[in-house]
Amino acid sequence: MDAALHDWSLTPKQAIALQSQLAKQLEADDRIDPVTHIAGVDIGFEEDGSITRAAVVVLAWSPEQAPPLTVVEQVVHREPTRMPYIPGLLSFREIPAALGAFAQLKTRPQLVMVDGQGIAHPRRLGVAAHLGLWLDLPTIGIAKSRLTGRHADVGEARGDWVPLMAGQEVIGAVLRSRAQVKPVFVSPGHRLSLATSLDWVMRCLGKTKLPEPTRLADRLASRRDQKRATASQTHTTASR
DNA sequence: GCGACAG
DNA sequence: ATCTTGTCGC
């Protein structure tokens, strides 16, 4: 077995305790600067998972310009994978690489959208929330599936949503971001309310199910699209 | 004790 | 997450 995959800096027990502590530091109210740039973050893997690849895309935002938004910067950062995937502890696996990518950014966004949960997490510290604390920036989690919480059925029209509940607590929303397509799970991370989080996700929605920031980060982080980009660059170069 | 379980 | 061809639809 690969020793590197077991080189944990924290035991699961320690990580869980830390999550409960960090969750107390989250701000649930809106505290966001005027938005000119929005970042999208996603993580992918190479070499059977031994390499973690973090992708960050920064888009220009203005109230006038509806999607598609303009890409102003993008970074891909690679480093050895430190932890296996354990449901509930995703942030410890993904955040180190994400921070590596952010360190290379020239632009500091006012808002960050992350592929994964915000507070819709057993201890209210999904990867989007955790990253928000590290960056001290407003973050939103947009997940493609559910980690925790219960919810009613969502309407079929774009924009329909129902609350995601943990007992009596609202921890996010199940949003029909595109008609007839499986809904996404939106939850605030740090420094944002659910209502504001939903507003921003709706505003960044293009023609697809995912908002532009995470859709583009997703593309950059995925192995297949890396090949696609490389191939088209080769074509461009060859045709000149 | 038995399932469920982001990426 | 990732391994993967074709195929249905705008």
Quick overview of this protein structure:
With 240 residues, the chain is α+β, with helices and mostly antiparallel strands. It has helices at residues 12-23, 90-103, 127-135, 194-203, 212-221, 223-238; strands at 37-46, 51-60, 70-80, 111-115, 139-143, 161-166, 169-175, 184-188.
Describe this structure in words.
GO terms for molecular function: deoxyribonuclease V activity; magnesium ion binding; RNA endonuclease activity producing 5'-phosphomonoesters, hydrolytic mechanism; single-stranded RNA binding. Belongs to the endonuclease V family. The record marks 85 as: Interaction with target DNA. Residues 215-228 have a biased composition (Basic and acidic residues). This protein is of the alpha+beta class and 240 residues long. It has one domain (3-238): 2-Layer Sandwich (archaeoglobus fulgidus dsm 4304 fold). Helix content is 30%, strand content 25%. The chain has helices at residues 12-23, 90-103, 127-135, 194-203, 212-221, 223-238; strands spanning 37-46, 51-60, 70-80, 111-115, 139-143, 161-166, 169-175, 184-188. Strands 3-2-1-4-5-8-7-6 form an eight-stranded mixed β-sheet, sandwiched between helices. Helix 2 (90-103) runs parallel beside helix 3. It is globular, with a radius of gyration of 18 Å. It starts with 11 loop residues before the first helix and ends with a helix. The structure holds two DNA strands.
